[in-house]
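Run folding on both entries below.
>entry_1
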Amino acid sequence: MKHEIEEWLNGEGEKFLKYMGIEEGQNILDFGCGNGIYSIPAARVAGRRGKVYALDNNKNSIKELRERAYSEGLDNIIVVEDTKGIDDKSVDIVLLYDVLHYMEKNQRDDVYSEIYRILKTGGILSVYPKHNKSDWPMWNLSDMSIDDIVKEIENSGFRLERKYHKRLMHDGSNETGTVLNFRRASFTAAFGTDDKKNLNDSHFGSAKFFHIYKFGNGKAEFVEERENIKVEEDESIKGDDPKKAKATSNALSGIDVLAGRRFGPNITRMMNKFLCIVVRTDSVNNAVDMMKSNMGRILAEMNKKNRKHIVLTSSGGENENTNSLHVRS
């Protein structure tokens, strides 16, 4: 058993967590971290640009985690007593491994709700639901199948992306377990329009209005209409001037995705804050339907560090996904 733990902490754990989606520079929450069997390798993968929030109510386990982190110089592990101090949409991945069986249904719902709050749009919730009815059933998961657990989590605003059967650590030993990866399955998108029916023909930032929709659980709901805030006309201000990008960004506070027929030279600045989608259609309604059909892909791209723009076509053919855009000044 000790040999297996050392192998895990000396490379195998990092390989596993990279496979689950953890990357350098990310923020991770290890909920129910124990003595750090996942926090330690997660901190190594995240590196100095990332951080790992470690949460557990077992003081002895936390002490052991602190000692190991100190001995390895891992100063990017932050022990927290709860998630209240973690900002909204600030965490890339949450690990919920071997803890659900301790919680009753109302407690689990509260945990899902809090994870939804802190997880970035498109972020990953990775769940190892040990002790379900097909895997050493115990306590609050003893009567729940994997499908029951998936349904419960999806009802809390997440979308199952993939199911894994992988070797991982449980109580100090290697075993094969089922890991479920979900995405925070909602985002808000702004569609540029001049006539409130069709996407504007010029670049996105020149639209008179932005129609805001919320996407989640395979549905799209109209939220509001916003008037575009423009920089005063000045011939000295070019199309790629940061003042114009800032003005458009101010009008799009709280938005995750921008959708339009074309984007201007400020696309590189806008991509730092938003995911940009070129939609090859005229009507806003058609664009909304195309986005709704590609929610999984959009959510996955949103969570990437070096994300690229997406091009959606009404023909249903293969969509582009590149770093370059044809722009209009």
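>entry_2
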Amino acid sequence: MKKELINLNELAFGEFGDTQSTIIKDQAPDLSSVQRRSILKDTERVSIALPTGELQKDVLRFMQTIGLDLSAREPRRYIIPVGNMPIDFVLIRASSIPTCVTDERSNAVAGITGSDILWESGLDRGSGQEIPIYNLNPNAKQSSLYIGVTDRFTGFIRREKNRDPEISDISGQTIATKYVAVTKDFTRERSIENTTVYPIPGTDEAVQYIFPDYNAILGIISSGNTVKANYIQPLEIFYKVVVRLIEATDKMTLGQSNILNDLRDRIAVALQSTRMIQ
């Protein structure tokens, strides 16, 4: 059966057609250069914090898929104006996005980041609206949080207890992680006691080579290649990370709120369409 191309802009009006034979078409509205310049000069624009790195590429690809015009983007600039909506994406570190959005001094009234970052920052991990980048882009790598132990500790448990390590074996150990708050929640929920948390900004799998007595790691995994290369034994992959749009409604003007409503509608339509097609 030949699949029918559909424009996501039309889906807002419920024109799904035959969802069994439908695929999504990347398409931004065809605006003239005069119209595009007029939108870019709009005095009331919405600044949305966007994470740098691999997630940035996936999010921008998704935004283009739902019809946003990003053709005005300039290399090495940390601001990406949307040509057909009064929105500016501002690139910052993913871990800084919750603070930038909630800080009343910030111009950013919304932000896009991983739910792991929201959890670690103290916000509800289900805050805001999910952005279904993994539904629309099968090449995007979805990450998960995991708890694991080093190869040295695995060998110790096998020698001493004649079995593979278990979650309960982490009790009394030092856990290296960049997710301090998540680790405390995880150990409390699993009744893992007397642990010490060693905060590290990143590359937590490398801590074992510097501190050989730090036997446990709580980190993030996607392909698993880094974990395997460093002989980490995952004990549990316990949380799948999703991308979410969060907002600071108390900082918004009515106009900004309407702009974000439009963006949320586009995201919701994309999510609904992928669920119907699947």
